[in-house]
Design a protein that fits this description.
Helices cover about 35% and strands about 30% of the residues. The protein is α+β, with helices and mostly antiparallel strands. The longest helix is centred in the last third of the chain and has 22 residues, at about 80-100.
């Protein structure tokens, strides 16, 4: 089971990027713990993503639940927060790039 298979996420399109945008834009909006769950919201290339990770869905073989609990227990630590973002974004990389591709300057012509 991959992290991607255990995440619940929704996306919403926002304002289009400037025509000359050539690098992806990113902004974390929310990272909060709710009991055994974590809600993570961010903007990527003008698309808003909501990710809800539930500990229950990570149970089973492997280290996913242990990794998740390590992040969740100390989510306010800046280093831990960064590692959590990398963990989630790494699992969703292909999906994010497909759902919110980076426009190039030539794409608007």
């Amino acid at each position: 089971r991959t992290v991607l298979q255990t995440l619940i996420f929704r996306t919403f399109k926002m304002e289009p990027l400037e025509a000359d945008a050539t690098t992806p834009s990113f902004c974390m909006l929310e990272l909060s713990v709710h009991g055994d769950d974590v809600v993570y919201a961010f903007l990527y290339n003008g698309t808003r993503f909501f990710v809800t990770i539930t500990a229950e869905k990570l149970e089973g073989e492997g280290e996913l639940l242990h990794q998740f609990n390590s992040f969740r227990e100390d989510i306010d630590d800046p280093d831990n927060m960064f590692l959590f973002e990398e963990w989630v974004l790494g699992a969703l990389d292909d999906f994010i790039r497909h759902a919110a591709p980076t426009r190039t300057a030539d794409a608007s012509k």
